Amino acid sequence: MGALEAVILTIITASTPLLLAAIGELVTERSGVLNLGVEGMMIMGAVCGFAAAYTTHSALLGVGAGLLAGVGMSLLFAFLTQTLMTSQVATGLSLTLLGLGLSGMIGEGFTGLPGIKLEALNIPFLSDIPFIGPVIFGHDILVYGSLFIVAGVAYVLFRTRLGLIITAVGGNHHSAHALGYNVLRVRYGCIAFGGACSGLAGAYLSLAYTPQWIENMSSGRGWIALALVVFSTWLPKRLLVGAYLFGTVWIMGLYVQALGVDIPSQLLSSLPYLVTIVALIIISGNKTLTKVNTPACIGQPFAPER
Q: Residue 278's pLDDT is what?
């Protein structure tokens, strides 16, 4: 039971940053915007979160700093793509490169320093229950926050007027504009939300998953988050399942290496990315499901005066 508990806890910690980053990108893409800068926003959230936590000795302030860093990067992307109408693909890739380079510069002085760990919530009596306590009630605020955000996004998108507006903007921005909705304002808000979630995902990496700063510690998780959105066909419930599936694959590769199985470590390290490719191939085979849920205007610029 102790070994099973350890595996489950590790899977949860590995899945949380994927879930946070992916749910933010899902909302962004639902509004018709493709932001390929998730990796850059995550790594900036990680370094700013660690720097703030180390400087103030407060992990919660570190979480806030990571969130703000993600929002700041996303607003830069929003200004370039929505106001100046640059290419969303090129700008997103540039945002990732900017984040990787800028985080390395900011984090140079923090490399090797002991981190401030985001402690788990201690719920009286419940946290002390054998096995169930640690697995269900023994996590930090971002683990529970990620689940709450997914539930909130699902409710807003499918049960509220705001969700209908976001869907309308992503489905046909010209029709939404003709109906009187401010397309750019909706997209700015969705992009900022996506940046906030990516920043939280990065802060989780440097404050909970591995409480220290390591250059490029996002290790491609931003790209997996982008693939998860397609894997889930833009549905929050499927995204939750997908994030924990990919988190499981990630951790199982590490456990197999620890057991000394005669499989090249490079192959095991590449498992999450191989699973990503296989999953995308499988999803692309169901063209009906993909066509129904894909935002029709994704990646398309919008200029109301034209």
A: 81
